[in-house]
Design goal:
By secondary structure, the protein is an alpha/beta fold. It contains ten helices and six strands, in the order βαααααβαβαβαβαβα. 49% of the residues lie in helices and 10% in strands. A six-stranded parallel beta sheet has the order 3-2-1-4-5-6, with helices on both faces. 38% of the residues are buried. One of its GO terms (molecular function) is hydrolase activity.
């Protein structure tokens, strides 16, 4: 197995427990705009996607244009709720700290969300120092997930071959983006997660799935040691020739 030179993390649902908060605010505002959508359907339809990318769908159900003013209000209400309620995914802060050390700092956060949200969330849960200078937003790319642009930008900035990058994702859209970038993707699938099954993450291209972020450093280190051992074995074979 190839050793990884860098680790690229998604943010929402991987590092921070934000998705239920954001979708609650979105669901409330869509209902206020005339779309009688349930929280469950809102989660299914919007998880892993930007609101603006679904403008046609929203406008079809509300009968109103998705205006900049509506989006500004959404961001304001969303950020207020996140500021009040956001917590880190269990085990994520320690996992990031350890992976940062194991990778000599070559980690990045590559999210489909807007930069202000990502940076605010990382700061709130104490992860910002580990990603300083290496936060990438799909809003700033030509295309957002499921296209690979944000992961390719992160890999390039870290001077890492995408084929030697490990991506951590929790949605089908994100997994598809990592695979399209040429990276290896591990799907995070906690037991209480409800928007994508482990089977769906694997079908989208994840090399494996795991359910506890606290397990990530040991999994990563095992791959690193296995690759190092294989390299030593290859050197020994050359010595015998």
């Amino acid at each position: 197995m190839t050793a990884f030179d860098a680790v690229l993390f998604d943010c929402d649902g991987v590092l921070v427990d934000s998705e239920s908060i954001t979708n609650r605010v979105l669901c409330t505002m869509l209902n206020e705009s005339g779309w009688a959508i349930s929280q469950e359907q809102c989660t299914r339809d919007f998880i892993g996607k930007t609101v603006r990318s679904q403008a046609t769908v929203i406008e079809a159900h509300t009968g109103k244009p998705l205006t900049d003013a509506w989006m500004a209000e959404f961001y304001e209400r969303r950020n207020a709720a996140l500021s009040a309620e956001l917590v880190a995914i269990d085990g994520a802060l320690e996992a990031v700290r350890q992976i940062h050390a194991l990778c000599d700092g070559r980690i990045a956060c590559a999210s489909g969300a807007d930069r202000a949200k990502v940076e605010m969330q990382l700061t709130k849960v104490g992860m910002a120092p580990y990603f300083e200078g290496h936060v990438y937003s799909g809003h700033e790319m030509p295309r957002s997930k499921p296209f690979p642009d944000v992961y390719l930008a992160a890999a390039e900035a870290l001077k890492a071959d995408p084929a030697k990058c490990l991506v951590i994702e929790d949605t089908m859209t994100g997994v598809q983006a990592g695979v399209a970038a040429g990276a290896t993707v591990w799907g995070y699938f906690p037991a209480d997660q409800g928007h994508a099954s482990a089977e769906q993450l694997l079908e989208a291209g994840a090399a494996c799935v795991f359910g506890d972020m606290g397990d990530l450093p040991a999994m990563f280190d095992a791959v690193r040691k296995s690759a190092a051992s294989a390299s030593v074995g290859e050197d020994d074979e050359h010595d015998l020739r």
